[in-house]
Amino acid sequence: MTEHSPLPAGTDDLGAPPAGSPRTGSSGPSAVPRLVVRTTLLPDGLPGDLTALTDLLPDARPLAWVRRGDGIVGWGEALRLEAWGPGRFADAEAAWQEVLGAAVVHDDVALPGSGLVAFGSFAFDDASGTTGDARPGGTIVVPRVVVGRRGGPGGTAWVTSISEGDALPDDVATVLDPAHRTPVVGPGRVTTVDGSLSAQDWTAVVAEGVERIRRGDLEKVVLARDVLATAERPVDPRWMLGRLATAYEACWTFSVDGMVGATPELLVRSEKGLVTSRVLAGTIRRSGGAEADDDSLLRAAHLARSSKDLEEHEYAVASVADALAPFCSSMNVPDAPFVLHLPNVLHLASDVTGVLRAGTDDTPAPTSLALAAALHPSAAVCGTPTLAARDLIREIEGMDRARYAAPVGWFGADGDGEWGIALRSAELSAQDPFHVRLFAGCGIVAASDPAAELAESEAKLEPMRHALGG
């Protein structure tokens, strides 16, 4: 495995990393590797649906970004880029640009997701990866093989093979050979316990957040909690991906560097000069049973009129629009949200769209990763005002979010890509394959009720409980 690590963010002028920061490889950054990339079309009907492919991947550490059967999935590791601290996004992007400059790409498909692509996952907080953390604050992974599909059944499918140096990539028959796949086994019996805080203690944290808002310290804060799961057998992310992609097909199912989930919130998509961000804020639990459809209609009507949820949503939309505005020549910000129906919850949702300003030789158009960095953290996952909310989260939340509620996704050589927010997600332990950490968060405003927020967090944990079940 070739590893190329940019200088950690937060370095001093001499390039020394922060005390205790991990480094990959030798004492200094390695030479930029030369990647050889080949993308070719797959025969009609192969793969029929990436949802089915996720649990057939030959690698137990898969890379995936799938929605409604379309997207890209990858395995193997041709290259890993790591970055630390507040400058993690810029450092990762700079290292990626160096890799692009040395790469040789043969792309017969020329669609978003073909050619040289990389998957990425980043920490929520600037402080992650700067004080001896085991993991850096940002990771970009280039797989050895990527299979993509676009356009649904009857659309276009392709395979990309990536190798280092002058060696030719593996041929299509080799990389898709079922003989290379290891069987996927479910986790068996799974038990869960409260994580950093007990449920009761977390409601006290929410009450403290409400009190700070009511006294005028801030307008909104998003508070999260974690639950620790222990499985009977080692947890295979392919098992989780298959269940999530099937049950939550309207979400973006992802797996990157140990983070697995099905996020309903698209932080940003950048494609041929157009940008889109799906903003979610304002949630109500969805009931099941025979009366579920009628009940969901009533709940949706209640959500659409809820002053508490509409206030929370307004803050989130404004933060995204304000962050995108400097990069766009025109924007469309909806006047009112729609109700997004998911199997476990209903959300207030708005799709903010824009046209990127044309780049120049001196100032090129931003990549999708640069846009994600500008948008993070939005009010939907942090609060309003952002700095005050972030400081309050650090003070009272009582846990390290790691990569929960942070950008996760992919981007290509042209800078286009898709980045979601790592919600409805879990972190697989790098040390113990039997352990998984589940996350959920809730937007808190002056009208929030701690008990209701706890119930909402339980509803948001349901996708990952489902992913581990069965």
State the main characteristics.
alpha+beta, 10 helices, 31% strand, globular, Chorismate_C
Task: Summarize the entry for a quick read.
The chain is α+β, with helices and mostly antiparallel strands and 470 residues long. It is built from ten helices and 23 strands.
Structure commentary:
This protein is of the alpha+beta class. It is 26% helix and 31% strand. The protein has helices spanning 50-53, 88-102, 172-175, 199-214, 237-247, 292-305, 307-324, 368-375, 386-396, 450-468, and strands spanning 35-41, 63-67, 70-75, 79-83, 104-107, 117-122, 138-142, 145-150, 156-164, 190-194, 220-231, 252-256, 259-263, 266-271, 274-285, 328-332, 338-341, 345-356, 383-384, 407-412, 417-421, 425-428, 435-444. The strands form two sheets. Strands 1, 2, 3, 5, 8, 9, 10, 11, 12, 13, 19, 22 and 23 form a 13-stranded mixed sheet that branches. Strand 17 (338-341) and strand 18 (345-356) form a beta hairpin. The protein starts with 34 loop residues before the first strand and ends with a helix. 50% of the residues are buried. Residues 1-29 have low confidence and may be disordered.
